[in-house]
Write a structure and sequence with these properties.
It comes from Halobellus salinus. The protein is mainly α and 91 residues long. 46% of the residues lie in helices and 4% in strands. The chain has a two-stranded antiparallel ribbon.
Amino acid sequence: MTQQTLDEFEKTVRCPSCDRDDFGSERAMRIHHKQIHGESLAQRGDRYRCSVCGRELRTERGLTNHLSKVHPDTWDDLQEDGVVLELANRG
């Protein structure tokens, strides 16, 4: 895995509405989004984007499953680095 590919991932989950990036999990960020921004992310249609192939998936679990099955070498590298996945900011 190249450094550029690793740099595409953040070590925390980022809110797509305000760019706050100190959430330790998808669930914590989604609770914040509903409370602070007044809508769930399901209503917004935000997705998790695979930085390897660009495929967008609805959940963090979907992306981790995708990475582990379709891009196992990349997934192994991310796990070694302790990276948490980030919502793709769809502006």
